[in-house]
Write a structure and sequence with these properties.
This protein is of the alpha/beta class. The protein folds into two domains: about 130 residues, Aspartate Aminotransferase, domain 1 (Alpha-Beta Complex); about 270 residues, Type I PLP-dependent aspartate aminotransferase-like (Major domain) (Aspartate Aminotransferase, domain 2, 3-Layer(aba) Sandwich). Helices cover about 35% and strands about 15% of the residues. The chain is built from 14 helices and 17 strands. A seven-stranded mixed β-sheet has the order 6-12-11-10-9-7-8, with helices on both faces. Strands 13-14-17-16 form a four-stranded antiparallel β-sheet, covered by helices on one side. Helix 4 crosses helix 11 and helix 5 runs parallel beside helix 6. It starts with 6 loop residues before the first helix and ends with a helix.
Length: about 425
Amino acid sequence: MKYQNNLSFARLQDKKDPLKKFRAKFLFPKHKGKDVIYFTGNSLGLQPRSTSKYIQQELNDWAKYGVEGHFHAKHPWFSYHEIFSKSVSKIVGAKPSEVVMMNQLTSNLHFLFVSFYRPTKERYKILCEAKAFPSDQYVLESQVKFHGYHPDDDIIEISPREGEHNIRHEDILSTIEKNKNELALVFIGGVNYYSGQVFDMKSITDAAHNAGAMVGFDLAHAAGNIKLNLHDWNVDFAAWCTYKYLNSGPGSIGGAFIHERHHTTDLPRFAGWWGHDKSSRFKMEKGFKPIPSAEAWALSNVPIISMACHKAAVDIFDEAGMNALTTKSEKLTGYLEFIIQEINSQNKNYKLEIITPNERGCQLSIIAHGLGKSFHEKLIQHGVIADWREPNVIRMAPAPLYNSFEDVYRFGEIVTMALRMK
């Protein structure tokens, strides 16, 4: 696509957009009576208009049935999480039996580490990317310490080369090979939250397995953003949140993937009532009998209100489809890159350096050279909601479900104006 920096071009692309109707399905914050330019779906996705209706359905059933809502609600609470198996499996590229909605992201990672981080005298190290999201770093640190090892020695971090902003794929593979005799686990964020870099998860998985290590991914910035194929990539486990690209509300339910080859093994796990065989669950007997699916990792009955929020969003994803979303995402993010380059060509005093590589989803991160946080605050004052990360990085994510080409063009106008005011 040959991009143009004018409003007519942007509006023409929006008119031709096969996903244009989905914008109206979301609620935008307002600035001076107009929709803000919302580029923070990588932090908290917008609320679907249908969410309140989905929540109200559960409140009505709670009022009507009380405890009997577990079996007589429109969507019985006893099995509510099962609603998501087919839909979510399409989002992450899995079999329905390999996904389960439960808990929240960091909790799920700890529970999954019980099964997949099994250090031995010979194999005990974890490999991860440098500048992983802090919560992931804390998970790794605490898990290593829990098993009696030392984070400084036994967590291997792969960093960008000096003067670069992204991790080279060949450096990941060579580090796996170099440490193959000591690696117990390779654990990486599928999309780096800071730079927006998408990692080659299939090749990483293949290399880790060849080295004899387990492989897991944090998909917080990947689920609902990029095409995933977890089953065919042979990933051992993954976890994600649903409040970013999946638009399911602040702190909403988390998701987990466990490859089917692990479902009937004797992997250790922390057990709970909701992972127990359904046919005998209410016999209330001793002796955990795991469901032969990812559900075996579930512990507690599910938070229905969060699940209702998630269902409102997932139903929209079902309608839109990941193929259409990623096709638009590539064009929309490409347009944002073009607009930023246009701004740089017209402004010699300040440079907005894009640090996100071509291997990306819909996020672009820029270093705002010579500009402090006041520049980001000025954007907010003019109706742009983007994300600031210290010391001088602005992350922007034009989400294809609800963002438009006109949003991107208007963003360029506001940035140009803000730079002239410096």
